[in-house]
Design goal:
By secondary structure, the protein is an alpha/beta fold. About 40% of the residues lie in helices and about 15% in strands. Strands 1, 2, 3, 4, 5, 14, 15 and 16 form an eight-stranded mixed β-sheet that branches. Strands 6, 7, 8, 9, 10 and 11 form a six-stranded parallel β-sheet that branches. Helix 6 runs parallel beside helix 10, helix 9 crosses helix 12 and helix 11 runs antiparallel to helix 13. It is globular. The N terminus and C terminus are likely disordered.
Length: about 525
């Protein structure tokens, strides 16, 4: 029988992420423009006879009852010993599995729209997200979600990208980039984004050592985390020692595990970006053509002892790594790209139609030798992920959704599958998208419950996270019928969407350390 302490840790793990009470979703009537959060006719919800997988205890807890009051999990215990309170709405979950709400720790939603982008996350079990390129759009969504006028996840929002000049990003996509040249401008950038409401500072690839050190110091002074890329100019151990909360992607990891890192870094110092090039895609392509030989050299000179020392350092400092295998796979295994997928119907046709042209711009100039080498690079990245896990590095699930061939919410389930393919146990993969990710995002304790109810056990097959029965999002219960209806509303909203005015609607290529070489 679980102890009282186990029951308390279960309650903590299953706590959700916003401040509204538990309700049935049937009262919601989303339009094709905005899927609204349900109203609140009931304050107590009893989920009975469930198997609970809380992300903390090693084993599932069978035949459990969870009591939610005003959206918060207030009690849990064996169903034989815990009866639903009088007047509670009772949901019999016999044969179902309850996990914490999923957390997606690397997305880009700057070109999304109310009607389909935010709602897709909770409807696919993703109840919290970390957006890695903050714009006014995400802040507006967060306000609407908190007000109850928009169905969506809890948003943790980055600053605009802070990079060195010239950034790999041009201005053609209409997304904000702050270029800093020295310590003074770097400190001013941190103060600015803190003032503008960013939850953390996003650091990028072309920062100078001076600017990076100033960002780290100013962030500590203002008590705002910083995360993102490990700049090309810095050894990864420097970023770790500086307190960077997470390292995104696997490019810097690959370089740092080479016995020839010093030589490779000399090559990195020679990489040039044309500041007059107006196209982000063109800048990416140029950058990767210069980087590819260095990555190949790093893979060929992989040093197992050096890698273990680095991974031990990452683990000792608690520095998280977000591998984003989804975007690595899409850009490095292009022969495996799908030509269609059922979930694409939840995005506008114009957006889906833009993906092949974007990918051609990024990968079309590869030779057969390039393609073969890049496939091997992807295999090596999987090896690095497995080795980091064995060394105790905290790996966090994130996809780089917002790039092509990825759909909000759905792509996280694919990321979990890729982490299993890399060799991680399903238990730890599930934690990378639940309890470990919640810690990274600093989601508050005692928040209303976020839960996903599954039709099958994800510990026996991680793809079972896709077999969603129902969802508790910020304390609101979305039953199977309402979930189906809400997904249909999202599909309708996506079908009605027209391309935005301004920059050409292309798939954002994501983060430069992940694009093709």
């Amino acid at each position: 029988m679980p102890t009282r302490r186990q029951a308390l840790t279960t309650a903590t793990a299953l706590t959700g992420a916003a401040l509204l009470p538990a309700t049935p979703a049937s009262a919601a009537t989303p339009t094709t423009r905005t899927a609204a959060r349900p109203s609140t006719p009931s304050t107590t919800l009893a989920l009975t006879h469930a198997t609970v997988i809380d992300g903390i205890n090693d084993r599932p807890q069978h035949d459990r009852t969870l009591i939610l009051r005003n959206g918060r999990l207030v009690r849990s215990g064996p169903s034989a010993q815990l009866s639903p309170p009088p007047g509670a709405r009772v949901i019999d979950l016999t044969g179902k599995y309850v996990i914490p709400g999923l957390v997606e720790s690397h997305i880009h939603t700057g070109d999304g729209q109310d009607g389909y982008t935010p709602p897709l996350f909770p409807l696919t079990g993703v109840t919290a997200v970390r957006d890695m390129w903050g714009t006014a759009t995400q802040h507006t969504w967060r306000e609407k979600i908190q007000a109850g006028s928009l169905l969506g996840p809890r948003f943790v929002i980055a600053s605009p990208i802070i990079d060195g000049p010239p950034s790999i990003w041009a201005r053609d996509l209409g997304l904000p980039v702050i270029e800093v040249t020295d310590a003074k401008s770097a400190r001013a950038a941190v103060r600015r984004v803190k003032r503008e409401g960013a939850d953390f500072v996003k650091v990028y690839s072309r920062l100078s050592p001076e600017a990076y050190a100033a960002i780290a110091d100013e962030s500590r002074s203002l008590h705002i985390p910083f995360a993102g890329h490990c700049p090309d100019t810095l050894p990864m151990t420097h970023a770790v020692a500086s307190g960077q909360r997470s390292i995104e992607h696997l490019h810097a990891i690959l370089l740092a595990t080479s016995s020839r890192e010093s030589e490779i870094r000399e090559g990195l110092a020679q990489v040039r970006i044309d500041p007059n090039d107006p196209s982000s895609i063109s800048r990416y392509a140029s950058w990767f053509r210069q980087i590819h030989p260095l990555e190949w050299q790093a893979m060929r000179s992989y040093d197992k002892g050096r890698a273990r020392r680095l991974f031990d350092t990452l683990a000792a400092h608690g520095t998280r790594v977000v591998p984003t295998l989804t975007v690595h796979h899409a850009l490095e295994r292009t022969a495996d790209l799908p030509t269609s997928a059922d979930e694409w119907k939840y995005l506008p046709a114009w957006q889906v139609a833009s993906w092949p042209a974007t990918w051609d711009g990024l990968t079309g100039s590869r030779s057969p030798e390039d393609t073969a080498r890049i496939r091997r690079l992807y295999d090596h990245r999987l090896h690095l992920v497995a080795e980091m896990h064995r060394a105790g590095v905290q790996l966090i699930a994130g996809t780089d959704t917002g790039t092509g061939y990825s759909v909000p919410g759905f792509s996280l389930h694919g990321e979990l599958r890729l982490l299993v393919e890399a060799g991680l146990p399903t238990r730890d993969v599930l934690r990378s998208a639940t309890t470990a990710a919640a810690d990274l995002l600093d989601l508050p304790k005692g928040r209303p419950a976020d839960l996903v109810i599954l039709n099958a056990n994800p510990l026996t097959d991680i793809t079972h996270t896709r077999r969603i029965h129902s969802v508790v999002n910020a304390g609101h219960y979305i039953d199977p019928t309402d979930r189906t209806r809400l997904l249909a509303a999202v599909e309708k909203a996506a079908a009605a969407s027209t391309p935005p005015e301004g920059p050409s609607p292309i798939a954002t290529p994501g983060c430069p350390c992940n694009a093709p070489h």
